[in-house]
Amino acid sequence: MTKVTMTINGKTVVGDVEGNTLLASFLRDDQRLTGTHIGCDTSQCGACTVHVNGRAVKSCTMFASEAEGAEVSTVEGQAAADGTLNTIQQAFQDHHGLQCGFCTPGMVMTTAALLKENPKPTVEEVRTYLEGNICRCTGYHNIVKAIMAASGQDVSAIAAE
Amino acid sequence: MPKDDGIGAATLRREDVRFLTGAGQYTDDIKQFGETAAVFARSTVANGVIKSIDITAAAAMPGVLAIFTGEDFVEVGGNPAGWLINSRDGTPMHEPKRPVLAHGKVRHVGDAYAAVIAETAEQAKNAVEAIEADIQELPAVVNMKDALSSSNYVHDEISTNQCFDWGWIEDNREATDAAIKGAHHVTTLELVNNRLVPNAMEPRSSRASYDRSRDEYVLHTTSQNPHLTRLLISAFVLGIPENKLTVIAPDVGGGFGSKIYHYGEEALVLAASKRLNRPVSWTADRSEAFLTDAHGRDHVTKIELALDEAGNFLAFRTETLANVGAYLSNFATATPTFLHGTLMAGNYTVPNVYVNVKAVFTNTAPVDAYRGAGRPEATYSLERVIDMAAREIGRDPIELRRQNFIKPDQYPFASAAGLEYDSGNYDALMDQMEKVADKAGFAERRKKSEAKGLLRGFGVNAYIEACGIAPSNLVGVLGSRVGLYDAATVRVNATGNLSVMVGAHSHGQGHETAFPQVVAEMLGIDATSIDIVHGDTSKIPFGMGTYGSRSLAVCGSAVVRATEKIINKAKKIAGHMLEASDSDIELKDGVFSVAGTDKSVSFGEVALKAYIPHEFPLEDIEPGLEETAFYDPANFTYPSGAYCCEVELDPETGKVRVDRMTAVDDFGNIINPMIVTGQVHGGLGQGIGQALLENTTYNEDGQLLSASYMDYAMPRADDLPFYTVDHSQGTACTHNPLGVKGCGEAGAIGSPPTVVNAVIDAMQSGGKNVTHIDMPVTPHRVWSAMKNA
Questions:
Q1: Pick from A70, A25, A67: nearest CA to A48
Q2: Which of A75, A105, A128 sits opposite B718 (nearest CB)?
Q3: Could you give the strand order of the β-sheet that contains B216-221, starting from the edge strand earlier in sequence?
Q4: Whole-prediction pTM value?
Q5: A35–B24 CB contact, under 8 Å
Q6: Does some domain include residue B306?
Q7: In this structure, are residues B166 and B340 in contact, taking their beta carbons and an 8 Å threshold?
Q8: Distance CA B500, CA B129 (A)
């Protein structure tokens, strides 16, 4: 066991982990932040995406001990303290960008990283950026639309309901 | 203009908030005090005799609490097939036992033969590695045609690999043969409906706990139908009395069919929780999901279409081999038969239809219903052979379909495949499709593609499908071992808000939003005061769950019936309060009033009165305001649609890209158009995935080659287009109170042939006489087909 200290959603936490404990497991099992999901074994699906020091990371490919001293943010830290959804979360609800909800935390975190790097992406840029996040429910239409809306762009031309 | 949250409103989903904030509670998110972990030892060979299993070393490993093998479950029952199919000669299908853990033989890669329970999953995994299993590998039976002629049997005790040889409708066989023999033109197509893995993003997970003080169990599990799971465990597998077992399906991360079925892991964790008197949990990793979730499709089909000189359809004759894998999953026998053969008349007035299906055991994972379940297979065969026939006889594919469509004045229409369609208007759907897809602009778009060196193809489809499988008395005659009703309890609480307990389960479909819209509309109250309770057998009435696009048409109808009972009783209470006859009471906008007077009481006042029944005429009115209804539909519902796809194909590489995808569907009346559109989007994504990307490949040894997201081509955002979805041409279902059909599977049913028809059109536009290509239409297949044409 090694002691790790990191900041998660603005709060300093200390934990004891094995050398091979994944960050995803540390978040879920030790910190009980179960919004970070595990959907595959091969770092393909992106359901476990969190931010480490401002960058999107698949938390199933990183050891918890590697996050020593890091600033980690997860889906649980995205809404305001009073529960108000942030712009990205609200856009996903407004445009029906989720169904079963399992990939959703990863989508929200990946979108946050995208819009930080590229505040006004094109549709093609959005689709390419989402390559590491698999959704089986939505056919991606409404996810892409929600992301375009979250970036403040006009989505009225995208076929709608 | 629909109300903000009543029927027809695009109400935003209330469940989204918990999913968007990480507050959803999926099975693996639930932790219990003292929890232990189960890990399974799974076969690495497709077929083998279990000579011995030595657990001595594994049992001595750190943290190990118990080890189970097939021996521990010899005395308990097998996981049964839910539908009995009789062969053409009248003999019943073969039903080899499907045990909790393999015993004697392993029959597919991933077949579990032992399970270790340890303090942690990691300790259990290490102990699984230390189990010494002597499994003698045998040759595997993988290919269906080989399986039928082989004397190497998946199940030795039945001495055949054929589960059944089914004919539908056997009495039509001779007439169909004669029609084909005498026809002016016959088009013949041999095709493969590719095997798919459902791939819900949440892997299966089950956690059991046992309460020794009451001899009761609780099972949290990833299920689309918790009551059905409980029934299977209680009545067939473990024999735990139903009233001692609670099954809870909390938030479930997608199902697509794969979570309908009861799996051995559920029984294992239950048995282990009692033996250890501690909670036992298991969550699949993705490799286990690929190896053991029930797969979908996997048909090899020959279809013939006979036409007369004028292009009228005379007959469809189909021969299909359907893979059921190594064991019969719960609905494996219904999917290729009654959910496939009965749809083989399509949208057409064709007089003769005959379908022969042979179901085949192989050393592969079980195959069962996956989004669409039988209807995608039917639609793909029909709509591909019709397109091929149109090309062969030089007819426009849309016009040939229109000529043979059932017309709006022909309903109810008895199809040649044995169903009675209640409503539809296929020409109106086709008209609307041609309009919204801008068919007129295709020629111009083709020119533009060609200027870029790309071929452009236009493909269409007309589909009909059957949702909300019913009624119970008919399916019972046809072999179903379950009823196919659903149930709802509407509980008006004393303070005026409502809890509506439903048998349907929501794992992405938005029931928590859509069902309250129905109740709010009926009662004239705010939908936010109505909560849906689902997924917990200790709270909900016995309903059959969610699959086959049945939730709204069947369970929603039960909600309507229960709400009608609430209104009737509430009117009695209001009549008592207002000193009027209940027949004079009217309900409008949440207020009960005496007709023609200004005397009224609010819904909330009636609710309170129901629970504080001072001065109640107790001989006439019982206290309380809670009603249950079970609803058994009179018929299936029959959604239909006209789809169109335009692809761009690069002749240099064979790469196909879907550029435009249009779905015009008739879903009858619509409760929440936003949710309906989302359901179609998802189906389209999966259907395009089947057409272009996804394939499940076993090698000749029965090893699954496509067992991870590195190897199985899941559709990603940059593989798919924006879709155009239209449901303006609905014709109301005539036999359920909401007039609704089903929208959950349509996209996956309608899109595969549409895409392939477009690919054929593109290749032919490039001067290549390719008449068929199997899915998935990969660059390699396209390039090879064009090279060899």
A1: A25
A2: A128
A3: B64-69, B112-118, B36-42, B280-283, B205-211, B216-221, B245-248
A4: 0.97
A5: yes
A6: no
A7: no
A8: 48
- Grouping H, G, I as helix, E, B as strand and the rest as coil, residue B381 is helix
Kindly state whether residue B651 falls inside one of the protein's structural domains: yes
Size of interface A-B (CB pairs under 8 A): 198
pLDDT digit string, tens, across residues B379-397 = 999 999 999 999 999 999 9
How many domains, chain B? Answer: 2
3-state helix, strand, coil in chain A (%, to 5): 35, 15, 50
- Name the least confident of B469-483, B630-644, B735-749: B469-483
Identity at B592, one-letter amino acid code: F
Q: Closest to A142 (Cβ–Cβ): which among B200, B508, B681? A: B681
Partners of residue B681 in chain A, C-beta under 8 Å = 138-142
Contact across the interface for A85 and B21, Cβ inside 8 Å: yes
Among residues B584, B599, B631, the one where a domain terminates is B631
Q: Give CA–CA dist B634/B167, Å, rounded.
A: 25
Q: Are residues B442 and B520 in the same domain?
A: no
Domain edge (last residue) among B631, B650, B673: B631
- For tokens 């996050």, what's the residue? A67
* Residue A96 to residues A78, A160, B243, Cα–Cα distance (Å): 18, 10, 39
% of residues, chain B, pLDDT over 90: 98
Residue B2 pLDDT: 47
Which chain B positions have a beta carbon within 8 Å of A17's beta carbon? none
* Bond from prior residue into B471 cis (ω within 30 degrees of 0): yes
Residue B474's pLDDT band, with cuts at 50, 70 and 90, is: confident
Predicted confidence (pLDDT) per residue in A37-93, tens digit: 999 989 999 999 999 999 999 999 999 999 999 999 999 999 999 999 999 999 999
Q: Is B630 helix (H, G, I), strand (E, B) or coil?
A: strand
E strands along B604-750, which residues? 626-631, 640-649, 656-666, 723-726
Confidence (pLDDT) at B3: 60
A-chain residue closest to B23, CA distance: A35
